[in-house]
Amino acid sequence: MTLTKNYAPYRLFGYVSALALHGGNFLVMYFALQGDIMKDPEIETFAALQWAYITIWNVIFQLAYPCLGILCDLPTILEIKEHVLIKQLKTYREIIFASIILPVGIFITFVFWPIYLYDRELIFPAFIDKVLSQGSNHVMHTAIFLIIVWEFIFLPKSAPQSHKVNLAHIFGCYLSYLTVLFSTHYRIGAWPYPFLKLMLGTIFFPMIFIGVGVLVHLIYFAQWPINKLIWGTKEVVKEN
Q1: E strand or H helix at 49
Q2: Upper half-sphere CA count for residue 170 (Cβ side, 13 Å)
Q3: Contact assessment for residue 103 and residue 170, using Cβ atoms and an 8 Å cutoff
Q4: Whether this model's pTM surpasses 0.85
Q5: Distance of CA 98 to the CA centre of its chain
Q6: Average pLDDT of the chain, as a whole number
Q7: Whole-angstrom distance, CA of residue 51 vs CA of residue 157
Q8: Is the separation of the CB atoms in 231 and 157 below 8 Å?
Q9: pLDDT of 76 higher than 90
Q10: Which residues contact 66 (CB under 8 A, 6 or more apart)?
Q11: Phi–psi pair at 53, nearest 5 degrees
């Protein structure tokens, strides 16, 4: 049995929605960090630490990935013969989604909210409300889950024969983030997440980073059994 339905229009809707949502929120956050509010010491430190927040990294991912998706799907929607480069980009889209977009997004949603609801001061202190509304909070930490589920449902794919390339992307992304996190702390003398300051000097500090790596890898591998229920095997999943 061969799947022939074209899901590109559904994906395009998701890409445009994601760009509008995250692009609009990005502008809101940018302008919120302008003017007299930057005289506030807490906000000044928050702004200096912004690239050490994994959520900000994910915002960039959530803006870049839809652009890649639109580039991949427009030839299909417009019924234009695909260049070989587009076919290669489609393959890379699957890699990026499986190794970066899905694991990072799911991790953020399912780790942020339990900690936030337990004690927001550990991860998203109340002073941040001076510049970021709860709407922005939900765009960055809730809407990403819905966008990922939409893409997961409408992007035909199957588990790769080897996970080495995908795992290399995960490891490279995590190593890059840790480099930025620790170098930012070295320069500024502060951590983006208060719980890191609390755990510093204890056995729990290194265990946090080990645990994050393990959890992200578990999320990565957990997607494939679920994906198989939707799309089956590579031999039966086809799309123009």
Answers
A1: none
A2: 24
A3: yes
A4: yes
A5: 11
A6: 92
A7: 32
A8: yes
A9: no
A10: 14, 15, 16, 18, 19
A11: -90, 125
